[in-house]
Amino acid sequence: MIPVDDPADPRLDVFMGLRDHQLRQARERPGGDMAGSFIGEGDVVIARALAAGHQLESVLVDANRTKGLPELPAHATVLAGGAKVLQAVAGRKELRDPIACFIRPPSNDPVDLLRRAKTVLVTEGVNNPTNMGVILRCAAGLGVDAVLVDASSCDPLYRRAVRVSMGEVFAIPHARIGSLGDLSESGGLAMLAQLGFLRLALTPSTTADDLGDLQLDRDQKCAVVIGAEGPGLSDDVLAACDRRLRIVMHAGVDSINVGTAAAIAFFAVGNARR
Amino acid sequence: MIPVDDPADPRLDVFMGLRDHQLRQARERPGGDMAGSFIGEGDVVIARALAAGHQLESVLVDANRTKGLPELPAHATVLAGGAKVLQAVAGRKELRDPIACFIRPPSNDPVDLLRRAKTVLVTEGVNNPTNMGVILRCAAGLGVDAVLVDASSCDPLYRRAVRVSMGEVFAIPHARIGSLGDLSESGGLAMLAQLGFLRLALTPSTTADDLGDLQLDRDQKCAVVIGAEGPGLSDDVLAACDRRLRIVMHAGVDSINVGTAAAIAFFAVGNARR
Question: A2-103 maps to which CATH number?
């Protein structure tokens, strides 16, 4: 444990500016000055990141922490922040959850992931990290083998998404693709079709088929394609998918949360293959 | 609009202490000094409460609000709070969402609700208002006709549950029952059986049956019985239900959020009846 009491200590740079979500996401993007790292907070998330093989750079803990830390690699740099440091990082003088900085792993190649997957999740414009985290937590547990996020979706390894997923983002490989609206042969939807995936678009549209009626061959590869809460999938993407499926709503309710809808879709796809 | 600038104004009493969740819930419980009211916040929630026939007592809005209000009954008392009042109520000098106080409707009789329902949700120990809200939002949309909350579950009309449900709690009637662990003839589980409900307990236990295998007669009445995130249903309740069902987990994930699990169960029950 290395005590740090000066907020200007360069070892703290990576933990600064965490609360400016826009700026932080920009800095962690490819080309940004923090593109080589991602942040994981809390004992469970840190333990899961390590278990998944992620390389720890450093951890910031409250110098007054009495609780033990998750088991860390022997070489890990553990910074014990004093009140001034914690105030600068977290906006308060205590830090309940340790904040860890990990080395960002190399990007996956989407085709590589698809060749090994049977059920994949594809997101268009899911740019709310909380929703991304909710979706990823369910995806892993409900049998999704890989995730493709389009250019307009947020980073699955962004701090808030990692936290909300409770570290389950590490249980499932993901890759970035270009705009899902690129319907050319080099676009993501064409790639999915070429590799034998049935592209299932999830939509609240009442003209879509009932998800509950879905029936699939036992070995059918499937891509569940979802858009953001609110706007949903773009018209082009909806039209280009093989099937448009909806969760039938009752009692005049117009929609459910996108994370819940995604979870139901993953469950239904697993069931439809019986 | 009545300007109010003194936090001690008695018309504000009902809006005070909103941030002390424990105390507030105690005060709104039967026998408490606020048992006759419930709070709904935000334009959507207020509009849905009014649409469902709830009686508005008063609304507190930011005196500087420029946006229009949802359509309110002509007699409604609209209090326009100044900075000092808003600070006392909300802990900040602005109020984005109006806060409305409604008259709490008389309790429903559980048997009355069950006689008119085909699919009901029964909760044991769901005492986290956020989880309750998430569950209620899905329940209404996914075909649940009524909700029974046991003595250890939180109030569906508690502010935070109402808010998280986005007001969908008003789309579905609920009633309070005693402890679900009361397995006597007068207990909730016996009542459900007497009225022809198949009691389906949701559990992460790996010895439970796969929810995806559920098949039901088209007219089968069902009660989906769920416990709190973490502890789940008590052993007695699990054993007393007719079926124990689980959502099969993949990738080493141990569980999903209780709201998501409930949503999948509601969907699966609807589907199993085909």
Answer: 3.30.1330.30
Of A171, A248, A264, the CB nearest to B263: A264
Could you say which of B171, B253, B270 has the minimum Cβ distance to residue A171? B253
Please give the pLDDT value at position B69: 86
Tokens of A160: 């808030």
* HEC profile of B207-267: CCEEHHHCCCCCCCEEEEEEEECCCECCHHHHHHCCEEEECCCCCCCCCCCHHHHHHHHHH
What does pTM read for this prediction? 0.91
Average pLDDT on A35-40 reads 96
Whether B225 and B199 have beta carbons less than 8 Å apart is answered as yes
| CB contact set of A178 (below 8 Å; sequence gap of 6+) | A150, A151, A187, A188
Residues B66-116: pLDDT tens digits? 888 888 998 899 999 999 999 999 999 999 999 999 999 999 999 999 999
What's the CATH number of domain B110-272, 1.10.260.40, 3.40.50.10860, 3.20.20.150, 3.40.1280.10? Answer: 3.40.1280.10
Domain regions of chain B by residue span? 2-103, 110-272
H or E segment to which residue A78 belongs? strand A77-81
Q: Which residue of B has its CA nearest to A256?
A: B138
Determine, for residues B257 and A212 on separate chains, whether the beta-carbon distance falls below 8 Å.
Answer: no
Locate A64 and state its tokens.
């007054």
